[in-house]
Amino acid sequence: MGGLVGPRQASERVRDMTRQLQALIEGAGTDSSGRLPSERQLAQRFRCSRNTVREALAALTAQGMIGIRGRVGAYRLPPPVAAAADLEQALGALHVTIPALSGLAAKKASVVGVSRLETVTSNLSQALLNRDAAAAYRCYVTFFVELAELAGNAYLARMLREIRDAARLLPAGRLSRREEMEAFFSDLVALLQALRRGDGQEAAPIATRCVEGFAASMRAAKAPGKQPLTENRS
């Protein structure tokens, strides 16, 4: 084993590991299901610590290239266009990528960036008051487009725009579960506050709750028997 590694050297090792993993993924270094080798296997393969591998995987998760699920481990995400195939896949993509992205964005938060997020949050509030599922969907995903821009992740920002702008994904109903809407909006405001403080550790779990709460509202709005938005113009 070598001597102590300083912060700069550790950061360089993580960046180098991230590049190597990216090359591995792009070179189809996954199994038939898209799953990557385990942390231990990657550490042995690239002769580095598991902590370095873990940080590199977290960076690729924030970039929207991979997802990480419990015992399944890391797996490759589909490209942006494929990720926007339907509402369920769109919500799944948000669930996988947004928590890590939120943690990264918190570290890079700027006054201007947070101000843009506040504007989007205000628009979302109005859409929720109107119980307009389609408008709420657009505003909500726009929030995370801005978050990706704030984190400096052009790849994920592009993917999120695809998800936001695909008309076939928009829920064709009205939001009806007031308590659920209030709960997820409260979480979104808490996320905004965490970003303003630059608290990445707090931002990630709040973002998970936000995505789960919003997904429940969107699924309810899309459920059969809901009245189409075009018939609700009161």
- Topology order in helix (H) and strand (E) letters: HHHEEHHHHHHH
User: Quick one: CATH superfamily of the largest domain?
Assistant: GntR ligand-binding domain-like
Which oligomeric state applies?
single chain
Query: What order do the strands of the largest sheet run in, or round the barrel if closed?
Result: 1-2
SS content category: mainly alpha
Low-confidence stretches: 1-5, 224-234
Terminal Cα separation, in Å? 71 Å
Shape: globular
Please give the radius of gyration in angstroms: 19 Å
Proportion of beta-strand residues: under 5%
Report on this structure.
There is one protein chain. This protein is mainly alpha-helical. It has ten helices and two strands; from the N terminus they run αααββααααααα. The chain folds into two domains: 7-76, Arc Repressor Mutant, subunit A (Orthogonal Bundle), CATH 1.10.10; 80-231, Up-down Bundle (Four Helix Bundle (Hemerythrin (Met), subunit A)), CATH 1.20.120.530. It has helices at 7-26, 39-46, 50-62, 80-83, 87-108, 111-129, 133-151, 154-165, 178-197, 200-222, and strands at residues 66-69, 73-76. Helix 2 (39-46) crosses helix 3 (50-62), helix 6 (111-129) runs antiparallel to helix 9 (178-197) and helix 7 (133-151) runs antiparallel to helix 8 (154-165). The longest helix has 23 residues, at 200-222. The N and C termini lie far apart (71 Å).
